[in-house]
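Q:
My hope is that you can spare some time for a protein that puzzles me. I hope you can help me see how the letters and the tokens relate. Thank you; the sequence and its tokens follow:
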Amino acid sequence: MHPTHDNPRGTVYARVGPAPIAAIAASLYQRIDRDPRIRAMFSPDLSESGEAVRDMREFLTQFFGGPEDYSARKGHPRLRARHMRFPIDQAARDAWLSHALGALEDARATHPIDDETAREIAGYFHHASAFMVNQPG
């Protein structure tokens, strides 16, 4: 079970719905698209209609308690295994995390995401990005 399912207020998805999650995914990849430090690790197409954004949107939706479209389409997320081919060091993790947290703030500017829910989403970004590090440095 995901930690977000233990909240007495329900899942993140139940609290915010699909639009803020989609906004986070789109903003995250817009930010990464402009970052030469980590851009090469990502798909050539980071547009809102591209597969990378779709994957992230569906993954976050599923993780935060929404429909399981990601697993239906791609199988088990196997997050770390899917990212092992990329050399992810602390600097790459920090860059990604900065963009993820910025994307969350971007979404909060246009969607109602309360402070507790934002902390829950940010906590996941911190945890998941630390888990992806596979290189020293």
In short: The domain at 14-132 is CATH 1.10.490.10 (Globin-like). The chain has a mean pLDDT of 91. The chain has seven helices and no strands. Residues 18 and 124 are 17 Å apart (CA to CA).
